[in-house]
Specification:
Number of strands: 15
Distance between the termini: 41 Å
Largest sheet: 9 strands, mixed
Number of helices: 11
Strand content: 15-25%
Length: 311
């Protein structure tokens, strides 16, 4: 069993066709078929069912697929890490993050990176939840992650500050002239909810915070993306809780941001109204990955200077 054979197998699965996979890999179809059959002999059974029009996975193939994907991703990540250790002169850096940070925090960092390291391109992978972000990083889809600090992470981790959650209202809202609002004052308001809302210990932060002051948010609209929810709030559909930096990235100055006073605690032991952010990885940060992490110390907007994780 070889890495190339697994790459060929994955290409056939992705294309659902030996012919299209051979074209994508720039090899002949007989050569591709030979390698896949050799892989099947190695594992002891058929991984693919050949159909008149295309292919599909056998039960053995379905069991084999995630392990082949992880092996190929890990090999590619190992190659990138080895090249990155030599410097930041060229290549790619794969970064995983959550949608809110991709919209509000990373554009300025990415622009600074391009100015300093034009030879290294960035590949950004966005996820809808912190659980998905951590799971995918563990599976090797990226060289590092930028996101809310994991509750438990065994690999390298660099804290890069905290983000504030705020309440978003339109300019003509009765609360727009204030700098802060108590959550209890919003008990009779309509709320916009998002599929990408922050979770803390498996519970939606907004539900926990509102429950602590005696009410359940009355939902009038649900969206998939935080940026959509913010735009709806700016238009006056309802109020929404969102990261301050993401709000500015999504709608600029078209709405009013209200701090929560007193702000709800987002995780046990953490400061009220904020959640910690971090850069973290499966392996030590070197070369391009280390250089990217270092940018947050001085360039990340709306986040304090980075500091090393204490032992």
């Amino acid at each position: 069993m070889s890495l190339r054979q697994m790459e060929y197998f994955l290409a056939v699965v992705e294309e659902s066709s030996f012919t299209r996979a051979a074209d994508a890999l720039h090899v002949t179809q007989p050569a591709l078929s030979h390698q896949v059959k050799a892989l099947e002999r190695s594992v002891g059974g058929a991984l693919l069912e050949r159909l008149p029009r295309g292919v599909r996975l056998t039960p053995m193939g379905r069991a084999f697929l995630p392990h082949a994907q992880l092996a190929v991703r890990s090999a590619r990540q190992a190659e990138r890490a080895a090249r990155a250790a030599a410097g930041v002169a060229g290549g790619e850096l794969h970064i995983a993050t959550v949608h809110a940070l991709a919209v509000g925090l990373l554009p300025g960092i990415a622009a600074r990176w391009r100015a300093l390291h034009p030879g290294v391109s960035l590949v950004l992978r966005e996820y809808g939840s912190t659980d998905a972000l951590e799971e995918q990083l563990e599976r090797g889809v990226a060289d590092l992650a930028v996101g809310p600090e994991p509750a438990q992470w065994l690999g390298p981790l660099l804290r890069i500050g905290r983000e504030e959650l705020v309440i978003v209202v339109p300019f003509d809202d009765p609360l727009a002239g204030r700098g802060a609002v108590r959550l209890a004052e919003l008990a009779d308001r309509d709320w916009i909810r998002c599929a990408m809302e922050l979770l803390s210990d498996g519970v939606l932060v907004l539900d926990r915070a509102c429950g602590a002051v005696g009410f359940t948010p009355r939902t009038v609209l649900r969206t998939e993306h935080t940026s959509t929810a913010v735009r709806m709030a700016a238009a006056g559909v309802g109020v929404v809780m969102a990261p301050a930096h993401m709000v500015r990235g999504a709608v600029g100055e078209d709405c009013v941001l209200l701090s929560l006073d007193p702000s709800p605690r987002l995780r046990p032991g953490g400061p009220p109204g904020h959640r910690p952010l971090a850069v973290f990885s499966r392996v030590p940060l070197t070369g391009a990955a280390e250089a990217f992490a270092e940018l947050f110390g001085a360039r990340a907007p709306a986040v304090p200077a980075a500091g090393a994780r204490p032992d």
